[in-house]
């Protein structure tokens, strides 16, 4: 966690978070999730760790779009939410609809299926 704090203004932050979020052998799911949450937090102007750096914000927003398209993450729905928050135009995009469909686990039932269904409905362009 200290490494992330030291890198919060550095372009290398994205590489570090990616290493953490994709390494299931070394890092627990809690730490992997926390690292993604950390990225979102430093872009929140009301959060204590906010970093007022438009370049870093742009890199983080791009990172979440990449993660949403790749889908190589345990908590895909969290990544989807972050991608929408950081990139408002992504919310109703065809790319989001495609990503949600591609990354939906097969034979999903129950509450998780309801969440995916709601996200897929949300991704549809609202009628004007």
Note down, in words, how this protein is organized.
With 128 residues, the chain is mainly alpha-helical. The chain is 65% helix and 0% strand. The chain contains 7 helices and no strands. The mean pLDDT is 91.
Can you describe this structure in just a few lines?
The chain is mostly helical and 128 residues long. It has helices at residues 2-7, 12-22, 29-42, 54-70, 76-86, 94-103, 110-123. Helix 4 (54-70) runs antiparallel to helix 5 (76-86).
Question: What is this structure's SSE topology?
Answer:
Blueprint: H1 2-7, H2 12-22, H3 29-42, H4 54-70, H5 76-86, H6 94-103, H7 110-123
Helix pairs in contact: 2-3, 4-5, 6-7
Features:
single chain, mainly alpha, about 130 residues, about 0% strand, about 65% helix
């Amino acid at each position: 966690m200290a490494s992330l704090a030291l890198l919060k203004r550095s372009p290398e932050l994205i590489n570090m978070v990616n290493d953490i979020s994709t390494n299931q052998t070394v890092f627990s799911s809690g730490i992997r999730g926390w690292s993604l949450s950390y990225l979102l937090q430093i872009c929140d102007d009301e959060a204590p760790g906010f970093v007022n750096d438009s370049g870093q914000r742009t890199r983080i927003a791009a990172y979440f779009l990449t993660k949403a398209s790749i889908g190589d993450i345990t908590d895909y729905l969290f990544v989807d939410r972050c991608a929408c928050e950081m990139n408002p135009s992504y919310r109703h995009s065809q790319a989001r609809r495609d990503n949600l469909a591609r990354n939906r686990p097969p034979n999903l039932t129950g509450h998780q299926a309801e969440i995916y269904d709601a996200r897929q409905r949300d991704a549809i362009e609202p009628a004007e």
